[in-house]
Hints:
The chain is of the alpha/beta class.
Amino acid sequence: MVTWCAILADGMATRLGIDIGGTGIKGAPVDTANGELLAARHRIPTPQPATPGAVAEVVAEVARHFDWTGPIGATFPAVVKDGVVSTAANVDQAWIGADAATLLSQACAGAPVTVLNDADAAGIAEMRFGAGRGRTDTVVMITLGTGIGSALFAKGELFPNTELGHLMIRGKEAEQRASESVREREGLSWKQWAKRLSEYFAHLEALLWPDLIVIGGGVSKKHEKFLPLVRTRAELVPAQLLNEAGIVGAALSCT
């Protein structure tokens, strides 16, 4: 078996990126010089309930799958400051106040772990290698999944933990009306969902006036079904790294 620590010793800018989501935890080693995955990603269903201990064990299992001993970057669907989780909108409440970086490092045999917000990670990847590459104007990355994640960039710089999925629309948080999980749960047609997304983006644009909105998350693979129906002032495009953006961004965070 090839050990990734040996490859690191040879000087490759290789890091393990792990994307922790509400339904799955997936990871792969990434060449941070070009954003390419160096092996097929390994995915394990997110444990239910997704308590800190249960999630940490799955993250460790992903690392063991690649026989990994080097630095690890991990995303998390919450506000994360200095490796500590501050919110729990779509995860187990036991995460609030948890030192995720230390917990995951201990589970991964002491490997150094950097933890950041999942949408921020996806945005970092898209700004470096994808739809936002070379952009110095105002860019917003929106991830559509269990909730709605966001990442805001101006002049190429990230403003972390923006949490724009919690904007209030018609008395509800935006992600309670327009996330991908809501579309599935309520059986919305693509046209119906696009109308809700258009309303959400109108609120977002009134506040931030972005020049580019990048749509990520697993549903971005089906962008042709709904993006042409969404109305925005800003340029609206699908993520180029699709659902691998979180893994790549996580890996970039620990370089």
